[in-house]
Write a structure and sequence with these properties.
Helix 9 (459-476) packs parallel to helix 10 (491-502) and helix 13 runs antiparallel to helix 14 (590-608). Mean pLDDT is 94; it is low at 1-31. Helix 12 (539-542) links the parallel strand 25 and strand 26 (548-550). The chain is globular, with a radius of gyration of 29 Å. Among the domains are: 40-137, Rab geranylgeranyltransferase alpha-subunit, insert domain (Immunoglobulin-like); 141-248, Sandwich (Immunoglobulin-like), CATH 2.60.40.10; 331-362 and 709-758, no CATH class; 552-702 and 759-874, TIM Barrel, CATH 3.20.20.80. It is α+β, with helices and mostly antiparallel strands. The longest helix is centred in the C-terminal third of the chain and has 20 residues, at 761-780. The strands form ten sheets. It has an eight-stranded parallel beta barrel. It has a seven-stranded mixed β-barrel with strand order 1-2-5-4-3-6-7. Strands 10, 11, 14, 15 and 16 form a five-stranded antiparallel sheet that branches. It comes from Streptomyces paromomycinus (Streptomyces rimosus subsp. paromomycinus). Residues 727-877 form the Alpha-1,6-glucosidases pullulanase-type C-terminal domain. Belongs to the glycosyl hydrolase 13 family. One of its GO terms (biological process) is carbohydrate metabolic process.
């Protein structure tokens, strides 16, 4: 059992609340030098771990430094981590541990609100000091009481209470509409509160927090917005005292909103969409670039979404729509490129140069730079200063999507913040410095996610994730959440989100929480990799939870290579590997290409099962294997326990669009019509798989970003969707931005200059119609939505798999259906002797559908032979 004090947190707080805190340094006093690192970690009230510490004479000091009259000491004695502590902090198990001297425990709460260092002499007797990481001890002392305390603005009978968790602050005051209001500290929870009057409603506010900031090496007084804000002024300069239940924020019909029928995750077909991309260049939209564009039912964009919904798309996944840190929210402040971009050559460097000059100040960003997690982004609203616009128009967007037959998924980014420390874009770290972010062994903030990593393993950061998601679900009627870099969350945190959502009911909360779907990126990397700090929410670990993770195995097999290849021409199943080779030496010899293609086909088979770990089949070498036996870059390909655990996709906002990837990979002379067919074939591997599937908006329209592999701030020019085929598909808008693409320019330039690679209306509309036919087949055939691994094993097989399998062709039998994926440039015959004498025909959707080529597919009853045209997926049904 972990060592604990024999009294409650509240009792400790009561004993120490009368202690006189040393006064903070005056503005004119020079602070003592701050240690460059924070290698000591105070993990609970009894225990300090200090990397590389000697085993004697260690102590904590707070107050002033050295031997002055203001210094106070907490003595440490050599100890060892208990089994519970080792389990909670596996990355610290081999570091020296120390116990807090029982005689000095009375100083704990005072020390945590002061300058705090760990001190010991080195071998020569010289004083050595380091900063102290305190998240663990804050959780131990304060989180039990704080976890149940409401935070942010909470209204009762129209009167608000504002609450903020700031256990290490010396003082916290409320700056309300230009005046200062005192706040009361609860010593057990570390929560500061101010109760207001009805007159506070709608007023701007900030918290004024005086606290020791290790990154600044001094006490600071920060004026900071509320991490639990529900509304903001433009550019997030102030929080607003707003009750989301205020009927004035609800659009007409909000309280009786009728949603499309819930679709279980294992049958979900999802369209990933950026709010601004959707309408900013749609000439038929009355609200380009705004939330309200989704209320324009007659616009080209909404008509297309409605067509996808009618065909079987069930969800629209919106890229982040919470408050974004790097977009000026007022239109008057947003910069625009001043070049005639349309007049420049298709392979010019000028477009990206011009767009780049305004990228930091324009209206565009993907939104993976969160500022406030639970307020809608203001740049998409008609008036970013108005809660009626931000909240009301976001709700109208949800209404519009629901009215088109689509449920709404929100992309959430709780794994990092835009900034930390004393940066102006930092919120959490300026209230409780050093708590909300994950710190490395030296005390620096981990940045493996690209930005300042948060630490959802800490109680109050984990609680913020849960509270924020529940608010979006209850107050905005969001139907699903996609977690960015979910593998950087503890599995327990994501399961806590699931549990909190499951508790929401229509009668109590206005939503059915059990119908809300969850999925995310289960990548395994960074300082948390391989469960180094906690059990992560990774692909393998989330199996069996009902929360899906993106399946990169099948994605790479379809496209070829990986997202970070030096040569982008590495081919895959749907891009001509071996069967239609390009000239890249990166593809290897013909024999190497054949072997890799056949292995890709095994990866695809596993993907088509829902990426099941225990699914048994014959691989292309003739062995009987399970999905987990198939290799994916040294890891098991199959990891799912049920067909809702893995999400299939061929492209998403990250990396090149599918069309652009095929532009690189298919032989340069491939006609536009064949490129379109390969696009549909690639999409089919996800659309006709077990489990959920996602496609990037516009992919069915051959969407291009002019070969840009990372368009997060490439502006409207490279990102905007083109719903009208006469506007093209986005290909040939200049060389993609240099920052992430310059090394690919030698490959990109001749492609962009080739007019044959720019598809016409016929190719665009044909591809979209063929994709919708696939969605209809999926939606009307129950066999594509099997709900258990056993059901998949019993119903799904690959009858021609083995040493004689045709390279470039995968044949799948699914109940009374036979699906043939022919990625080769020739018509292929697939002989299934076991079906000889049985009646099959092309599925009625394709037989009456948009693609005249697939209608030439054939079946010979006598021999059980299926004939499928080149670059075609054909679905046959038993008669």
């Amino acid at each position: 059992m972990r060592r604990t004090l024999r009294r409650t947190v509240a009792a400790v707080a009561m004993a120490l609340c009368a202690a006189v805190l040393p006064a903070p340094l005056s503005a004119n006093a020079a602070p003592p030098p701050a240690p460059a690192t924070a290698a000591a970690q105070w993990i609970d009230r009894d225990t300090v771990v200090w990397k590389d510490a000697r085993r004697a004479d260690a102590r904590l000091e707070f107050g002033t430094e050295g031997e002055g009259p203001g210094v106070r000491r907490i003595r440490l004695t050599p100890s060892a981590l208990t089994p519970d502590e080792q389990a909670a902090y596996p990355h610290l198990r081999n570091f020296p541990a120390f116990a807090v001297d029982p005689r000095d425990r009375k100083f704990t709460l005072t020390a945590l609100r002061d300058r705090l260092v760990a001190v010991q002499p080195d071998a020569g007797g010289r004083r050595v000091s380091t900063g102290v990481q305190i998240p663990g001890v804050l959780d131990d002392l304060y989180a039990p009481a704080a976890a149940g305390t409401p935070l942010g603005p909470v209204f009762r009978r129209g009167r608000p209470t504002l609450s903020v968790w700031a256990p290490t602050a010396r003082t916290v005051a409320l700056e309300l509409d230009g005046r200062t209001v005192p706040m009361r500290r609860d010593d057990a929870s570390g929560v500061w509160q101010a109760r207001g009057t009805r007159g506070w409603a709608g007023k701007p506010y900030r918290y004024v927090v005086t606290v020791w900031a290790p990154t600044a090496g001094r006490f600071v007084t920060n004026k900071v917005t509320d991490p639990y804000a529900t509304a903001l002024t433009a550019d997030s300069t102030r929080s607003l005292v707003v009750d989301l239940a205020d009927p004035r924020l609800a659009p007409k019909g909000w309280d009786r909103l009728r949603k499309p029928a819930a679709v279980p995750l294992n049958r979900a077909r999802i369209q990933e969409l950026h709010i601004r991309d959707f309408s900013v260049e749609d000439r038929t939209s009355r609200h380009p670039g705004r939330y309200l564009a989704f209320t324009d039912r007659r616009s080209d964009g909404m008509r297309h979404l409605k067509a996808l919904a009618d065909a079987g798309t069930s969800y629209v996944h919106l890229l982040p729509a919470f408050d974004i840190a790097t977009i000026p929210e007022r239109r008057s402040d947003q910069a625009r490129p001043d070049c005639d971009l349309a007049a420049l050559p298709a392979d010019s460097e000028r477009q990206q140069e011009c767009v780049g000059k305004t990228a930091a100040r324009d209206a565009y960003n993907w939104g993976y730079d969160p500022f406030h997690y639970t307020v809608p982004e203001g740049s998409y609203a008609s008036d970013p200063d108005s809660p009626r616009a931000r909240t009301g128009e976001f709700r109208r967007m949800v209404q519009g999507l629901n009215g088109a037959g689509l449920r709404t998924v929100m992309d959430v980014v709780y794994n990092h913040t835009a900034a930390s420390g004393q940066d102006a874009l930092s919120v959490l770290d300026r209230i409780v410095p050093g708590y909300y972010h994950r710190l490395l062994d030296d005390g620096s903030v981990a940045t493996s996610t690209c930005c300042a990593n948060t630490a959802p393993e800490h109680t109050m950061m984990g609680r913020l994730v849960v509270d924020s998601v529940v608010t979006w679900a209850r107050q905005y009627k969001i139907d699903g959440f996609r977690f960015d870099l979910m593998g950087h969350h503890p599995k327990a945190n994501i399961l806590a989100v699931r549990k909190a959502l499951d508790a929401l009911t229509p009668a109590k909360d206005g939503v059915d929480g059990k119908a809300i779907v969850l999925y995310g990126e289960g990548w395994n990397f960074g300082e948390v990799a391989d469960d180094a700090r906690f059990v992560q929410a990774t692909q393998r670990n989330m199996a069996g939870t009902g929360i899906a993770t993106f399946n990169d195995r099948a994605r790479d097999a379809v496209r070829g290579g990986g997202p970070f290849d030096a040569d982008p021409r590495v081919q895959g199943f749907a891009s001509g590997l071996h069967t239609d080779p390009n000239t890249s030496p990166a593809n290897g010899t013909p024999a190497e290409q054949r072997a890799r293609l056949l292995h890709y086909q095994d990866l695809l088979k596993v993907g088509l099962t829902g990426n099941l770990a225990d699914y048994t089949f014959t691989d292309t070498t003739g062995r009987t294997v399970k999905g987990s036996d198939v290799d994916y870059n040294g890891s098991p390909a199959g990891y799912a326990a049920a067909p809702g655990d893995a999400l299939a996709y061929a492209d998403a906002h990250d990396n090149e669009t599918l069309y652009d990837a095929l532009a690189y990979k298919l032989p340069p002379g491939t006609p536009a019509a064949d490129r379109a067919r390969m696009q549909v074939l690639a999409l089919a591997t996800a659309a006709l798989s077990q489990g959920p599937a996602l496609s990037q908006a516009g992919t069915d329209l051959l969407r291009s970003k002019s070969l840009d592999r990372n368009s997060y701030e490439s502006g409207d020019w490279f990102n905007a969707l083109h719903w009208n085929c006469r506007d093209g598909n986005g290909f040939g808008r200049g060389l993609p931005p240099a920052a992430d693409n310059k090394d690919k320019w030698p490959y990109a330039r001749p492609l962009l200059a080739d007019p044959a690679l720019r598809p016409g209306c016929r190719q665009i509309t044909d591809a979209s119609a063929a994709y919708r036919d696939l969605l209809r087949i999926h939606a009307t055939e129950p066999a594509f939505g099997l709900d258990s691994a056993k059901a998949v094993q019993d119903a799904l097989s690959f009858p021609l798999s083995g040493t004689e399998e045709t390279p470039g062709v995968v044949t799948m039998r699914l109940g009374e259906l036979v699906v043939v994926f022919n990625a080769t440039p020739q018509r292929q015959l697939q002989h299934l002797p076991s079906l000889a004498g049985k009646r099959y025909g092309l599925h009625r959707v394709q037989a009456r559908g948009a693609d005249p080529v697939v209608r030439t597919a054939s079946y010979e009853k006598r021999t059980g032979t299926f004939g499928v045209p080149a670059r075609t997926v054909a679905v046959f049904a038993a008669r």
